[in-house]
Amino acid sequence: MARLIIIDDEKSIRDALRDILEYEGYEVDEAKDGEEGLELIKQNSYDVALCDIKMPKMDGLELLLKAADVGKGTQFIMISAYGNVENAVEATKRGAFDFIIKPPDLNRLLVTVRNAIEKAKLVIETKTLKRRIYKLNEIVGDSDAIRRVKDTIDRVAPTEARVLITGANGSGKEMVAKQIHEKGSRASMPLVEVNCAAIPSELIESELFGHEKGAFTGASSKRVGKFEQADGGTLFLDEIGDMSLSAQAKVLRALQESKITRVGGDKEIKINVRVIAATNKDLRREIQEGMFREDLFHRLSVIRIHVPPLADRREDISLLADKFLHDIAEEYGAQPKEITPDAMTYLQSLAWTGNVRELRNVVERLVILCGDEINRNDVEMYA
C-alpha cells in the first residue's frame, strides 16, 4: 500500500484530501506546517507528499529542497491557491513532480498521485539496481596488491585520464574498468564495452566506428558504432592487444582528434569519450614484434593498473569465497552455505590458473552440489 503525507496549514484542506485519498486505499499522514512535515519525512518513508507552497515557519519550496537532502525519494506534488506560472516553474526546478491549483480537480489529483507513486517506485528500483550492480562489481581483497589497485582507482576515477589495465584472464580487469567508470564524473552516462578478441578483424572497424548504408556487402542500413554510443561516457576496449593494426590506426586518430568517420562515410563526427583499455598480453613485446602500435600504447597508458593473479594474493581467497557464497545464495533465494576452515585452507592451496573467475565457478559448483556445510572432501571432489 502506498503511503502519502499531506502538508498544509489549512485543516479543512488536509481533512478533504485525507478523505479522498483514504477512500482510494492509500495510507495517509498529515502535517500542519513545513517543519512538522520535514520531521515526519525524516522518520518515515513516503511515496508522495502533497504540499502547500504558502505555509508558516517553512514554506513548501524550502521543504522540497530539504526533503531532497533526506534522500528517501519522496515525490512532491505542490498545491497552491496562487496558480501563477512562476510558482509552477520554480517548483519544477526544485524537483517537484507536479503542480496543482487549489481547489484541486479530483480526477486530475488522483491521476497525478498515481503517476507520482509509479515514479517513486521507479526511483527505489533504480537505487536498488545500482546498489546491486555496484556490489557485483566490487573489488574484494585486503592484500597489499589489491589495496594498491583500489587506491589507484580512487585517484584516477575523478579525472579524464586514459587507463590501461593489464592482467591475466579472469583476474578482474573488467571490474576495475567498471569501478573507474562508476566512481568518475561520467557515471550517469553509458559505459560501452567492446571485446576486441571476440570480433573478427574485418568487422572491428564497423563495430567501433559504425558504417554507412552500402559501405560494404551486407551493409543494408546505417550503423552507429561504439564510439558514438559511448559519447559523453566511457568506452572500454577489452583485450585491445587483439585489435588489428588498421583498426589501431583509426583508434589512435580518434584519440588524437576526438573525431571519427564511419566506414564508407566522409563526414567527421565529434566524440567526447573516455577510453579505458585492457589486455592480457605484454604490449611492449607486441610492439617489438610489430603487432601493436607504440604510439597507441602511449596514448592509452597514461595510467597503468596491473591486476595481480589470484595466486599472488592468496590471502584474499577466503574473502572472495565468502562474498561469492553470499552473492550466489542471494541469486538463488537461499541461505548462504558455510565452508569449513580446512576446506578454505585447501581452496587457498590450489593453482587458480583461471583466477577470480575460476574461483567463483568453483564456489557456485560447491553451492549447487554440496550440503549446508562445505568440507574439504567436497572441495577435493568438485574443485
TrEMBL record:
CDD domains named among the record's database cross-references: AAA
GO BP, one annotated term: regulation of DNA-templated transcription
Listed Pfam families: AAA_lid_14, Response_reg, Sigma54_activat
Keywords: ATP-binding, Nucleotide-binding, Phosphoprotein
Annotated ranges, domain Sigma-54 factor interaction: 139-368
Entries under InterPro entries matching the protein: AAA+_ATPase, AAA_lid_NorR, CheY-like_superfamily, P-loop_NTPase, Sig_transdc_resp-reg_receiver, Sigma_54_int, Sigma_54_int_dom_ATP-bd_2
Positions where 4-aspartylphosphate occurs in the chain: D52
Keyword match Nucleotide-binding: yes
Molecular function per GO: ATP binding
Domain annotation Response regulatory: ranges: 3-117
The protein's name in its UniProt record: Sigma-54-dependent Fis family transcriptional regulator
